[in-house]
Amino acid sequence: MSLSLLSRYAFFAVCVIFTLASLPFIEHEWLWPITLVTGVLSLIGIVDLLQSPHAVRRNYPILGNIRYLVETIRPEIRQYLLESDSDALPFSRAQRSLVYSRAKNETADKPFGTLIDVYQSGFEFIGHSMRPAPLSDPSSFRVMVGGPQCTQPYSASVFNISAMSFGSLSANAIRALNHGAKLGNFAHDTGEGSISPYHRENGGDLTWELGSGYFGCRTSDGRFDPERFAVQAQNPQVRMIEIKMSQGAKPGHGGILPKHKVTQEIADTRGIMMGEDCISPSRHSAFSTPIELMQFIAQLRELSGGKPVGFKFCLGHPWEFMGIAKAMLETGILPDFIVVDGKEGGTGAAPVEFTDHIGVPLREGLLFVHNTLVGLNLRDKIKLGASGKIVSAFDIASVLAIGADWANSARGFMFAIGCIQSQSCHTNKCPTGVATQDPLRQRALVVPDKAQRVFNFHRNTLHALAEMLAAAGLEHPSQLSAKHLVRRMSATEIKLFSQLHVFLKPGELLTGEVNGEFYSRMWQMARADSFEPHETAAA
Fold first, then answer.
1. What are the CA-CA distances from residue 328 to residues 246, 378, 414, 423, 510 (Å)?
2. Cα–Cα distance between 159 and 290 in angstroms, integer?
3. Origin, by domain of life (predicted)?
4. Could you tell me the pLDDT band of residue 33, with boundaries at 50, 70 and 90?
5. 505/374 Cα distance (integer angstroms)
6. What is the DSSP letter of 384?
């Protein structure tokens, strides 16, 4: 029996043992009050073990209640002694409370005005209309993903679950997320850990993410296996295929799942050996140039039976993406979608240097990708997703306004199934059973309850988005543009995003008359045959 298990149940066990042992001596006047207290605590512990809504109480009977007791006075403690509601570490209390409320179908309304300083530089808002539009049905907020080379397009929600692998998340967490996606008719990204039995259990729509380890479709030496890929990709539950180029948490780094965390289930799901570290290389072996990437996309599309195929990346060197764009023009092969991740994203552990100082933030990356595709007359053929600290309707609206077609959220949906931001995801000791492979810890996460919360969070967030759109005089998220998003520049100046950023005109990169030296220079540096830049242009 592990020390962790003993520490979690020790206090409960002491209360029960003391209560039972003291009963024969209850006539002692000094003893019965203590016995009464331990008896009550024992009953509380039993209730904690039997209840389903709160994972912390199931994993820490009696002691787990301290969290909720402290939480009830937490606003007051923080108000007078500690932090503000807006301190994002990495998510603020206000953000987490919003998700918790919407997941539980509780009102998220706040009285007495905003806590945000609206005169502080960086404050953002959506402009509203003097003539609001009728409230639209949130179920109509969908986008058709699938370009001219796709034969099985997918109608995706504008809000979906971002990539989180089985292995990083528990089986029960995957079950809850996928069941919630099924209830709400939105997509659940598998993460690079492949498609587990828990992804299939409830039949929710899947976006199969294919990382550099090719988990679920790999040969014994870790290379891509077309036959194994075709078997999985042609499953009707798989609606889109996403090549993972890089992620926001640690772009260009790769990853390792230590062998002590590799269970037999993970090994079977990923197609790896037990007793060995599970390695995700920092680069793909199936392609090495932009042209080869396009050919790989075409291969995956054919093997999947014509399903939408795209890639996800966190922008690094701008000329590399423009090289991919040149490869699109040269080969005539187009991805059906591109998901732009921001450096603010990431559910897993990463070196601090990568988390803090590698990768382009979401908005700048998204804007660059959007502009490049517009400048090549490709934007209407390729859909764009955005991922990176998206938890609210405003977060969704802000990325849609600058070029995205839909938004993905990872940590937002983790909050919906009970995550409390303990930041212990990499320790296998998640207190709520979300990010752990410990069978007892994840048992505390009750799937039907959390699945309903996933559904509620998605539905209520889209309802809030519908209300925002109506206030802005719009009927559908696709009508949002940069002119609707406003930022405060100083105490005396605000600007529309359409004024703040360069937006290329359709076909502008093809004409050679580019509005903006940066885009022109990156285009000259880009190569379709290599991720390396043209040296003469870079000089």
1. 19, 9, 36, 40, 13
2. 29
3. Bacteria
4. confident
5. 7
6. E
Q: What kind of architecture, by CATH, is found in domain 151-253+297-500?
A: Alpha-Beta Barrel (3.20)
Look up residue 345 and give its amino acid: G
> Which candidate, 58, 33, 26, 55, places its Cα nearest to that of 44?
58
- Residue type at 292 in one-letter notation: E
CATH code 3.20.20.70 region(s) in the chain: 151-253+297-500
Look at residue 247 and give its three-state secondary structure.
coil
Residue corresponding to tokens 């295929």: 241
Ranges 15-24, 423-432, 450-459, 525-534: which has the least confidence: 423-432
- Give strand pairing partners of 206: 188, 238
Q: By the 8 A CB rule, do 85 and 93 touch? A: yes
Residue 468 structure tokens: 């925002």
Distance CA 480, CA 405 (A): 10
Name the pLDDT band for 525 (thresholds 50, 70, 90). very high
- Selection from 225, 228, 158, 235 nearest residue 204 by Cα: 235
| pLDDT score recorded for residue 539 | 52
Query: Count of CB atoms within 10 A of residue 523's CB?
Result: 23
Looking at residue 83, what is its pLDDT? 60
Residue 370 carries which side chain, given as an amino acid letter?
A: H
List the single range of 32-46, 295-309, 359-373 with lowest mean pLDDT. 32-46
- Indicate the SS3 state at residue 209: strand
- Most confident range, picked from 102-106, 280-284, 511-515: 102-106
Cα 414 from chain centre: 8
Dump the DSSP string for 397-419. HHHHHTT-SEEEESHHHHHHTT-
Alpha-carbon 201 to chain mean position: 21
Using 50, 70 and 90 to split pLDDT, how confident is the model at 3?
low
* H helix or E strand, kind and range, residue 463: helix 447-471
Residue 377 Rama label (left phi>0; alpha psi -120 to 50; beta): left
State the maximum Cα–Cα separation within the chain, in Å, rounded to a whole number: 96
Half-sphere exposure of 309 (CA within 13 A, CB side): 25
Contacts with 369 (C-beta within 8 Å, 6 or more apart), sequence order: 315, 321, 338, 340, 384, 403
- The token duo for 495 is 């600007």
